[in-house]
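Handoff note, outgoing to incoming analyst
You'll be picking up this chain. Sequence as last confirmed:
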Amino acid sequence: MTSRSSEQAATVSRIGQRRQVVIPKRVFEALRLREGDFVEVTADGGRLLMKPKKLVDADDGLTPQEAKKVRHGLRQVREGKTRPWGKIKHELGL
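Most recent structure output, in case you need it:
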């Protein structure tokens, strides 16, 4: 058996009746997972990979006014209407 620093000892879990897999407690705690968290599940070369995922709440997004400011700023960047931070900082007296 080869040893890699990023790998831990293998743990076996059983696939349940509804295709559910139990994540062993030590793995669950090491990843700081909580009940109700989401994981991305992929198949890669005969291996099953699970990666913890965080979902973004729609309420945590930009307001319409904030989105408008971001679009305006991006348009200014595309049009080359930018100035170096050092100059702006000096003008603001910071």
